[in-house]
Amino acid sequence: MPMKLNFSGSFELNVSREKAFDFLTNPSSISDCIPDLEKFEIIDDKSFNAKIKVGVSFVKGTFDMKCSISELDKPSHSKFLLEGSGMPGKVKTQLSFELTEKSKNSTLINWTADSELSGLITGLGETILKRTTEAKVQEILNRIKEKLEK
Amino acid sequence: MEKLFSQSIEDLQKIYRFSEDELEILDTVDKAADELALSEFECYLERKVNKEARNVAKKFGLYAIPIKKEYGGLGFNPLISALSEERLGQMSLGFAITYNVQVFLGELTIQRWGTEDQKETYLRPAVNGDIILAYALTEPEAGSEPTALKTSFEEAGGKYRINGSKYLITNGSIADAIIVFAYPQGKQEGMTAFIVDTDSEGFNVAMELETKIGLFSSDTALLEFKDMEIPKENVLGTVNKGLQVAYSALLNGRMAAAASSVGAIRDCLNASVARAKERFQHKKLIAKHQLVQRHIAEIAQNLEMARWPTYFAALRKIEYEKNPDNVELRLEMDKRTALAKKIATRLAFESADRAVQVFGGFGYSLLSAPGRHFCDTRATRIYEGTDEIMELKIASLVLGKEFEAYS
Questions:
Q1: How far apart are CA B4 and CA B2, in angstroms?
Q2: Could you tell me the CATH superfamily of domain A3-149?
Q3: Which of A124, A133, B116, B202 has the most CB atoms in a 10 Å sphere around its CB?
Q4: pLDDT at B407 over 70
Q5: pLDDT digit string (tens) for B118-137?
Q6: How close, in Å, is residue A85 to chain B by CA atoms?
Q7: Which residues of B touch A137 (CB under 8 A)?
């Protein structure tokens, strides 16, 4: 049975909701924000493939990810389906963004991610996997902020 | 809050009334453990001391938990300290031993025996996390037999001069101040405790013990003292009465060792249950295989057998701290703590062994929590008093003083 991990969080971007939405749903701009990205291939405007190195310390493996946008409701909601496999195991994640306009140039983004993991990777245990993922997500959010707000 | 830790608090609530402040600090410790988990894991794999841990401990006020408010502490009782150590041990025994030495062997010892000046100079900064403490009793040729120490001191020009070495000293190479035990030169009686500043001339870290078989995120060192001069005011307690200081510190250290081992058992149970519910073999989850169930049942039993003697010792210590001169209570504490330490550390090692078995091949790796606990719990059966010393202590406390092995 796969291990289930749920994540959620929120962050603010000092840009308009439209600009934030366009950025977060554009595969090309998202690719700039993923750390340790080894390969990236846009399939169409709603799907892309990526090869990502993930891990902790010197223990790293690569995942071949297939990503697609499954729901789009501009400018307030989007949902991604991310499926990956590699030597460390398999991962399937549904990632949702809800965008709320705080002011003309400020957007609040609430996100949730429901993941299922299986294979060797689950042996690391829930705590380590959660903390590793949270650290990675924070890195991605920092890059998004940096790119969008510059 | 982590599920089994929360369960533990709920169970205890049936016999102990927690105050709101106590529940709040336990929640804080839980958050701190959560925040520390990843850096501990990384440092463990890379076999390096977790330097971030000190900042996290400072941020959450962990070093202040059992210390009296008048010295900058939070003033929580031994049960709360034990539960805190349990949660930290669940996260990592490497951090738990670092914390044990800083707080239980270091701060509490200075609080019990130190002068007001020493408390201002060493205790208050330690509580704030501004300095790190270590406790140096063991020597290359003196472990379970403290009366065989070779480290010596002599008076010289209104100061004391110390010569000797100390072995397997947790926090040894990162400490700012160390509680060191020595005999008067040429004698094997009159042990005296000193607080030593590690920036003193004559202090040397001879070796950082990187070849140990666990606790990789903690620092363990071999220390040397060559004609190291110490001001007379740095004697901790009374000259020639250092054995009392050493034993009272070990009483606290053993309580922490027991509590952190309960945490390790808890984590072994958590990890084994999760693994057994995910892993398929022979077309069914291994949780449905009866021989795997036996391992899980044994770990669950170990948890119950380890935690209650530990909690009971902590509860009795609350009484002892109210009456520190009560000899009967002190002897009871000695026995309760030895029982808790022996039981919890032995069962933690056994639980880790069983958890490795549940994990199969992946358990034979430091990437898995059981693999790490298997390596780490081995040390808990040695430090702060070996299994064998605990058994001798328990036996003599049951049989009577005339049956003491070394009398």
A1: 6
A2: START domain (3.30.530.20)
A3: A124
A4: no
A5: 999 999 999 999 999 999 99
A6: 17
A7: none
Question: Nearest by CB to B38, which of A58, A118, A135?
Answer: A135
Neighboring chain A residues of B264 at a CB cutoff of 8 Å: none
Q: Known catalytic residue: B319?
A: no
**Closest listed residue to residue B300, CA positions, set B232, B351, B356, B225:** B351
Comma-separated ranges of CATH 2.40.110.10 domains in chain B: 134-236
Question: Per the structure block, which two tokens stand in for A86?
Answer: 């590699």
Given an 8 Å threshold on Cβ–Cβ distance, is B41 in contact with A57? yes
Q: Which residues of chain A neighbour B271 with C-beta distances below 8 Å?
A: 125
- Record: contact B368-A123, CB cut-off 8 A: yes
Candidates B132, B98, B128, B112; CA nearest to B256 is: B98
Residue among B332, B384, B388, B402 flagged as catalytic: B384
CB within 8 Å of B271: residues ≥ 6 apart? A125, B355, B358, B359, B368, B369, B370
Please tell me if residue A87 touches chain B, with a CB cutoff of 8 Å.
Answer: no
Q: What does the pLDDT look like over B299-347, one tens digit per residue?
A: 999 999 999 999 999 999 999 999 988 999 999 999 999 999 999 999 9
Which CATH architecture best describes the domain B243-403?
Up-down Bundle (1.20)
**What is the fold of B3-132?**
Butyryl-Coa Dehydrogenase, subunit A; domain 1 (1.10.540)
- For residue B4, give the nearest of B192, B195, B262, B266 by alpha carbon: B266
Helix%, strand%, coil% for chain B, nearest 5? 60, 15, 25
ipTM of the complex: 0.80
Which amino acid does the sequence have at B253? G
Least CA distance to A124: which residue of chain B? B368
Residue A59 identity (one-letter amino acid): V
- Class for domain B134-236, per CATH? mainly beta
Range(s) of chain B covered by CATH 1.10.540.10 = 3-132
